[in-house]
Design goal:
Helix content is 50%, strand content 9%. The protein is α+β, with helices and mostly antiparallel strands and 202 residues long. It has 2 domains: 2-80 and 190-197, Glutaredoxin, CATH 3.40.30; 89-188, Glutathione S-transferase Yfyf (Class Pi), Chain A, domain 2. Helix 1 packs antiparallel against helix 6, helix 1 crosses helix 9 and helix 4 (89-110) packs antiparallel against helix 5 (119-140). The structure holds glutathione. Glutathione (GSH) binds next to helix 4.
């Protein structure tokens, strides 16, 4: 399997799960500005949406969208227990959370990278971020991970997105449950390995 990624982008989530599940993988960095891959390919010919992540499966197929890519990777190694079995209520709870992270957290935080989001618009966006942080903080209160005790693919996704608070200078100290969560996930060997490979450590 090959993962197309950009350092520190949401593609960090599937990268962490590839490491957590110990699956052999290749990495290919994408320049999101020029849409060229490190080997000089036109990335939009690989993923016409132009966004990371994308994975290339061993049969050549391309699969995109963080929430789906995460499930595909985890489903290759069900014994790792990072994604409950399809059809169970636990799986629907995972899907509910992945969908929330994708539509409410990822895109709300992500908008702040756009330099055109400024003034009142930026303030409104920061208010929306704070509302998401309040909700996530309530869910993480007394729970080590977003679905309870156990680490799952939803935690890798949430980690990748909340970690942007460092790049965006968003102060999370009002939400100690979130800073604790970031520390907890960041210290996992899989997260350390993925961040090291992406050049994010020191
Ligand atoms: N809906 C996509 C969104 C992915 C996305 O927003 N990726 C960002 C990086 S975190 C990106 O590639 N942005 C550059 C672009 O879309 O041109 C998914 O869930 O995978």
């Amino acid at each position: 399997m090959k993962l197309y990624f950009a350092p520190g982008a949401c593609s960090l989530a599937p990268h962490i799960i590839l490491e957590e599940t110990g699956q052999t993988h290749e990495l290919e960095q994408v320049d999101l500005g020029t849409k060229k891959t490190a080997s000089g390919e036109e990335y939009t010919k690989i993923n016409p949406k132009g966004s990371v992540p994308a994975i290339q499966l061993d049969d050549g197929q391309i699969l995109t969208e963080v929430a789906v890519v995460l499930q595909y990777i985890a489903d290759q190694k069900p014994e790792a227990g990072l994604s409950p079995q399809a059809g169970t209520m636990e799986r629907y709870r995972l899907l509910e959370t992945l969908n929330y992270i994708s539509s409410e957290v990822h895109k709300t935080f992500g908008a702040l990278f756009n330099p055109d989001v400024k003034g009142d618009w930026r303030e409104a966006q920061l208010g929306a971020v704070a509302a998401r942080c309040d909700h996530l903080s309530r869910r993480l209160d007394g729970n080590a991970h977003i679905l309870g005790d156990a680490f799952s693919i939803a935690d890798a996704y949430l980690f990748a997105v909340l970690n942007w608070s460092n790049m965006l200078n968003i102060d999370l100290t009002n939400w100690p449950a979130l800073t604790g969560f970031l520390d907890r996930v960041s210290s996992r060997p899989g997260a350390q390995a993925a961040m090291k490979a992406e050049g994010l450590l020191g």
